[in-house]
């Protein structure tokens, strides 16, 4: 056998430099590796494999003499690859793969790889992979939520003529790819319409990315919109950052509070609208984008243009399709259906059963002007649910004083006597003051200029301890 070893080494003398390089690769690889010739004799073996089998000079020996239960010599006969085979060596289960070495359509040898030295390594790796897949799925789902529109036109509640007209225009706008400008006071539901337009469009399967232009400092807005290359400025991530426009590619981007965008950014946004491409900070390369822009503002952009606070050319680019959502005080017909829908939504979220809204409470809601619009109405409904009595009905007494004491609520309500209405007003004032004082009865009595005894009597008559 020693003589055969010498002959083998002599035949391969010219390849020593090549072998040294290969040895470095083999000995630094995670897997255990062995290479045989077309007759099944070992040409090379990694150091780790040698140590495992207990033979530090296996070269020149037949693989069956060195590796227990090996099938590597069969590969040079069949030419068939074997992947992930379980093999027992020295009483230990390992996972091995075997591949033929082919040159000029002829099998000249084979490679054997032990990927996992112990099958428990495989199970550990499998667990890690499963965990990683779960984490990746979670972050993908979170990203999808962040980049998707939540609402459709069916989520927009109301019966007023003006709201129906706005919905009709927005539904038509959704069928085109034109830019849309949504105007209206804060709290009127501009974002809801932006979501609905995207979801009713051909871009519904694409991303919906939103950004509040007023909430981001002007010096950061450019990087948020257009992204940056790694090392573009001090504090920049070395891998760079993808901007909102790139994230929205193939879908829609919602630019909320566009009227608050700084003038220098308006110039760059105008270029994006004209060229349909963006350039990251620190880059000289432009990137084409396919994005539909939906913008919203609570400002009068025509007046902003006149005062040179908003570029006229950008205004006309954004204002291809425009809608103006009227404030709630101008569409009183929407208050009742909105209040009922909000009760259903909030009671479900809060896990509280609400039986109904009393007619007196509804009349008070309909009489109020709602400067905060739907957002304010939602807050009032939530507050009322927190103050429900045992009858689980939203009543005048659960509404804030500034609503119940509005001069427009001091009107005759059909079916109620003057005494009943005065009772409700008095109860509402006392409960509101008590709530503001966090239940401190003495302070409440002092604020209302009444004795503590009188306050207790009043509360008792209301069924409150």
Structure description:
This protein is of the alpha/beta class and 465 residues long. Helix content is 45%, strand content 17%. The strands form five sheets. It has a five-stranded antiparallel β-sheet with strand order 2-1-5-4-3, sandwiched between helices. A five-stranded parallel β-sheet has the order 7-10-13-6-14.
SSE diagram, text form:
Blueprint: H1 2-11, H2 16-28, E1 32-37, E2 42-45, H3 47-53, H4 63-66, H5 72-78, E3 82-89, E4 92-103, E5 106-116, H6 119-146, H7 161-174, E6 180-184, H8 190-199, E7 208-212, H9 218-226, E8 227-228, E9 241-242, H10 244-247, E10 252-256, H11 263-275, E11 277-279, E12 286-288, E13 292-297, H12 301-306, H13 312-318, E14 321-325, H14 335-350, E15 356-357, H15 359-367, H16 373-386, E16 393-394, H17 401-404, H18 418-436, H19 441-447, H20 452-461
Q: How much β-strand is present in the residues? A: 15-25%
Give the helix level as a range of percent.
Answer: 40-55%
User: N- to C-terminal separation?
Assistant: 103 Å
Kindly report the spatial arrangement of strands forming the biggest sheet. Answer: 2-1-5-4-3
Calculate Rg over CA atoms. Answer: 38 Å
Number of helical segments? 20
Rough outline: elongated
The whole-number mean of residue pLDDT values reads: 84
SSE class:
alpha/beta
- Which parts are unreliable, with pLDDT below 50 for 5 consecutive residues or more? none
Number of strands: 16
- In this structure, how is the largest beta sheet organized? 5 strands, antiparallel
């Amino acid at each position: 056998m020693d003589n055969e070893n010498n002959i083998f080494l002599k035949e391969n003398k010219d390849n020593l430099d090549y072998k040294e390089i290969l040895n470095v690769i083999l000995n630094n690889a995670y897997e255990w590796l062995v290479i045989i010739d077309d007759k099944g004799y070992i040409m090379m073996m990694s150091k780790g494999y040698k140590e495992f089998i207990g033979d530090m000079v296996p070269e020149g020996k037949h693989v069956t003499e060195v590796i227990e239960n090996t099938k590597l010599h069969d590969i040079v006969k069949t030419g068939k690859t074997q992947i992930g085979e379980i093999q027992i060596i020295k009483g230990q289960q390992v996972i091995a793969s075997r591949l033929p070495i082919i040159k000029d359509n002829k099998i000249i040898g084979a490679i054997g790889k032990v990927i996992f030295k112990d099958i428990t390594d495989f199970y550990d790796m499998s667990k890690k992979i499963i965990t990683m897949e779960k984490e990746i799925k979670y972050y993908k789902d979170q990203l999808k939520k962040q980049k998707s529109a939540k609402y459709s036109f069916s989520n927009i509640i109301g019966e007023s003529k003006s709201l129906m007209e706005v919905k009709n225009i927005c539904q038509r706008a959704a069928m085109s790819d034109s830019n849309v400008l949504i105007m209206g006071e804060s709290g009127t539901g501009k974002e809801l319409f932006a979501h609905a337009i995207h979801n009713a469009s051909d871009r519904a399967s694409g991303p919906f990315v939103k950004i509040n232009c007023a909430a981001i400092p002007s010096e950061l807005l450019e990087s948020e919109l257009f992204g940056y290359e790694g090392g573009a400025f001090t504090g920049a991530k070395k891998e760079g950052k993808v901007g909102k426009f790139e994230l929205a590619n193939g879908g829609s981007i919602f630019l909320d509070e566009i009227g608050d965008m700084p003038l220098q950014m308006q110039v760059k946004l105008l270029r994006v609208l004209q060229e349909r491409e963006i350039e990251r900070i620190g880059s000289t390369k432009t990137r084409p984008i396919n994005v539909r822009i939906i913008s919203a503002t609570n400002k009068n952009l025509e007046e902003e243009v006149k005062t040179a606070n908003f570029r006229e050319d950008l205004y006309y680019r954004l204002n291809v399709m425009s809608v103006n959502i009227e404030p709630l005080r101008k569409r009183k017909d929407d208050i009742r259906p909105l209040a009922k829908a909000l009760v259903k939504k909030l009671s479900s979220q809060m896990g509280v059963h609400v039986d109904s809204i009393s007619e007196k409470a509804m009349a008070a809601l309909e009489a109020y002007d709602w400067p905060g619009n739907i957002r304010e109405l939602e807050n009032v409904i939530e507050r009322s649910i927190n103050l429900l009595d045992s009858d689980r009905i939203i009543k005048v007494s659960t509404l804030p004083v500034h609503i119940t004491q509005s001069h427009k609520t001091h009107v005759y309500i059909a079916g109620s006597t003057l005494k009943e209405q005065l009772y409700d007003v008095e109860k509402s004032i006392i409960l509101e003051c008590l709530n503001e004082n966090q239940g401190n009865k003495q302070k409440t009595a002092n604020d209302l200029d009444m004795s503590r005894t009188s306050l207790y009597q009043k509360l008792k008559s209301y069924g409150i301890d």
